[in-house]
Specification:
A 5-stranded parallel beta sheet has the order 5-4-3-9-21, with helices on one face. It folds into 3 domains: about 15-160 and about 390-415, no CATH class; about 175-315 and about 525-675, FAD/NAD(P)-binding domain, CATH 3.50.50.60; about 330-380 and about 455-520, FAD/NAD(P)-binding domain, CATH 3.50.50. By secondary structure, the chain is an alpha/beta fold. Bound molecules: NADP nicotinamide-adenine-dinucleotide phosphate. The site of NADP nicotinamide-adenine-dinucleotide phosphate has 25 residues, from helix 11.
Length: about 675
């Protein structure tokens, strides 16, 4: 482990705010280039004290204990009790005020001592010390958790890197992999292939990387998962401006990562895959590639990793007359560059996550906004949702070596269970709008928050109160912006139901015609049409969508489908974590599993592997049973979680630990091999 300390250009910063206005840096853990970049600590004692006042303490104490070796910083009386997550997370991991005071005193002293003693960090902290720091933050059996925790921490080295290289295990073999999509998952796949020395090409339908973050450029677009956890394990960034960063920041991060890793030159932009066919004799996939000029060429690959996302193809509702509207039509997932809504009469259809961010961002500028709501969303109280990370915390993240990594780890750990227990179906629970005791507690917590938001508007409160269990659909982060918008005099919440769209506006079911200049459809994506519209033909000429899935997509581990050898999926069926954790965690699990499978093929000199039917079926039965025990599986709601047959085909029902465990090892017994 090598730390590079960078002296800041201007050492005479006067205020904390000035301190954070330094250029963006990437701290790479041990993935990219094998170094961590931090800036030299040169604040006064007093400014250090001010910074620590704004720190996340549990992660800071673990960091300082590791870099100084002083384990009194992580003594048992300072251990965060991490009470179960309800509607919100206990600040500072639930530490008492007394423990927080002591923690701050110790942290300040440790940083000052570190500053004054040359700011060197041990080259390789002993594993026992790292273990102590991990044990301070987490609860449970460390031995059982160790592989997952080491992976997420990646302090000593990049634990997600493939443990093989083509040059070592099959030097004479030529093996090409196609990656479809250059969003978060495609970037992760490309980087891991590059690390393994495997030849690869990435095909991206857009003109830029980013996937959903490139497509969703609507006003107000930002994360709803804490940012440090929603970042690639091998590309850590210490200077996120917010805990829930905005779309431009995330897009810039992904572009930086593609440059940094050197994978950018391997990406074919504006290029779509129309079809792919597996040739059993050759053990290869032939891809029909539609290039930037519209020409169709065929390319052969040994394996394919799909990284197309599930929320990438906009869905328009099936409303009569939808094509007759003469004004401007916008879908949230394909926001035009500058639609100029100022002074316009705008309709927004939908009240999901996208609408929730768009509405408050455009309301001020339009002349009139009508929100058409079918079902209201449940809201998670998040008063600090739009807040910047405090300057002191930002300074610490940039100056205390490894703080960003420990902070990410801490965020990850809190979400390993997260709110998952609050979605559990209790047998015999008899309630119209909750599925169990914990789910009812969550509902009461959310209702109390909503009652506070709408205490002056009981009419609105009645309209925005959901009549289905919380977590049956995606829960949204709320800091009051939605209520503020709905209470504006020129904003209406229409719950009558849409009957028809005409040339000039929207007819509601009560027979009223509402005229508009613009209709914004925030109506979601064709999530269950996974991998559509690519025509995928596997063994014996079977087509994936027509002959295999027929509208009900399934996969083994969400990654492999029997009859489609060497086709690895990321973000596949039943892999969406919808209440706990970050989508990037499952994507990285899928990429690393695929790399293990490819490594096995190469090491054993086989052409292809095909998932057996038995493990596929057993696995899917386990997932289906799990989903039926969750609010989203048990409730009679419709959402992108479920397909048209009513099965929860997108959601992962078990814990993050479970997903880690089943993907951490490649089991050859689950596969047939083609030599
Ligand atoms: P969505 O959650 O599928 O919401 C679609 C909305 O459109 C729902 O309110 C739905 O109502 C409504 N709708 C559909 N057809 C309608 C009709 N005919 N009339 C009236 N309303 C209709 O889509 P989304 O908001 O784009 O979000 C999709 C997912 O993307 C989210 O769940 C989240 O996972 C992700 N996302 C994340 C962020 C973020 O903050 N990071 C932001 C945006 C999206 P019903 O509920 O009645 O079906």
């Amino acid at each position: 482990m090598q730390i590079i300390l960078i002296r800041t250009n201007n050492k005479k910063f006067k205020t904390m705010q000035q301190q954070i206005n330094t250029p963006s840096t990437m701290v790479n853990g041990n993935g990219l280039g094998g170094f961590n970049r931090v800036e030299k600590i040169d604040l006064t004692d007093n400014l250090i004290r001010q910074a620590v006042d704004q720190a996340d303490l549990p992660a800071l104490l673990a960091t300082l204990a590791m870099i100084t070796g002083d384990t009194s910083l992580i003594s048992p009386d300072l251990k965060p009790p991490t009470p179960p997550m309800m509607t919100s997370i206990a600040p500072q991991g639930g530490m008492s005020m007394e423990a927080q005071d002591k923690a701050r005193r110790l942290a300040v002293a440790a940083i000052i001592k570190f500053r004054d003693s040359g700011q060197t960090v041990q080259n390789a902290p002993p594993q026992s010390l790292i273990d102590q720091c991990v044990s301070y933050l987490v609860r449970g059996d460390l031995e059982e958790l160790r592989p997952l925790l080491e992976h997420e921490l990646s302090i000593i080295r990049d634990m997600g890197a493939p443990d093989w290289n083509l040059g070592d295990i099959a030097p004479s073999r030529s093996f090409r992999v196609a990656v479809i999509g250059a969003g978060v998952s495609g970037i992760a796949a490309a980087y891991r292939l590059q690390q393994a020395g495997v030849d690869f090409s990435v095909y991206e339908k857009n003109e830029e990387v980013g996937g959903v973050w490139w497509d969703n450029r609507y006003p107000g677009c930002r994360l709803d998962t804490p940012n440090f956890a929603y970042s690639l394990s091998f590309a850590q960034k210490p200077d996120w401006p917010q805990q829930f960063s905005r779309q431009p920041e995330i897009q810039a991060y992904l572009q930086t990562v593609t440059g940094f890793t050197g994978i950018r030159s391997r990406i074919h932009f504006n290029t779509e895959i129309d079809a792919m066919r597996f040739d059993e004799a050759r053990g290869c996939w032939t891809l029909s590639v539609r290039d930037a000029r519209g020409g169709l060429v065929e390319e052969e690959f040994n394996a394919v990793i799909t990284a197309v996302g599930i929320l990438s193809r906009p869905s328009f509702p099936d409303i009569p007359g939808i094509d007759t509207f003469k004004g401007q039509v916008i879908h949230s997932g394909k926001w035009p560059q500058s639609p100029n809504l100022a002074g316009k009469r705008v309709a927004m259809v939908g009240t999901g996550a996208s609408a929730f961010q768009i509405g408050p961002s455009i309301a001020e500028s339009v002349s009139h906004l009508t929100v058409f709501q079918r079902n209201p969303p449940w809201m998670l109280p998040t008063p600090t949702y739009h807040d910047d990370i405090k300057p002191g915390m930002q300074w610490l993240l940039k100056h205390v070596p490894f703080y960003g990594r420990w902070f990410r780890f801490w965020q990850f750990w809190i979400a390993v269970e997260g709110r998952l227990p609050l979605t559990e179906v209790d047998e015999g629970w008899d309630h119209p709008v909750s599925v169990g005791r914990a789910n009812e507690e969550l509902r009461q917590g959310c209702l109390a928050w909503m009652a506070g938001q709408y205490k002056d508007r009981p009419d609105l409160l009645a309209k925005v109160t959901p009549n289905y269990p919380p977590a049956a659909k995606r829960m949204l982060r709320d800091n009051g912006a939605w209520a503020t918008m709905l209470k504006m005099p020129h904003v209406d919440l229409n719950t009558t139901g849409i009957k028809e769209i005409t040339a000039t506006g929207i007819y509601t079911k009560d027979g009223v015609l509402h005229d508009f200049d613009v209709i914004v459809f925030a109506t979601g994506f064709k999530a269950s049409d996974f991998l559509s519209p690519i025509k995928i033909t596997g063994l014996a000429g079977r087509e994936l969508h027509r002959d295999c899935w027929d509208g009900d997509c399934r996969a083994y581990l969400g990654i492999m489908v029997p009859g489609f050898p060497n086709l690895f999926m990321t973000g596949g069926p039943n892999t969406a974590v919808v209440i706990n954790g970050s989508a990037i965690f499952s994507s990285e699990c899928q990429v690393e599993y695929s790399m293990r499978a490819i490594g096995h093929l190469l090491a054993t000199g086989q052409k292809a592997l095909d998932c057996k039917v038995e493990p596929f079926e057993e696995y899917n039965a386990w997932v289906d049973a799990g989903n039926l025990k969750r609010a989203w599986g048990a409730a009679r709601t419709t959402s992108w979680y479920k397909n048209s047959q009513g099965r929860a085909s997108q959601t992962w029902p078990h814990s993050l630990m479970d997903y880690w465990n089943i993907t951490a090892t490649f089991k050859p017994a689950d596969y047939e091999f083609i030599r």
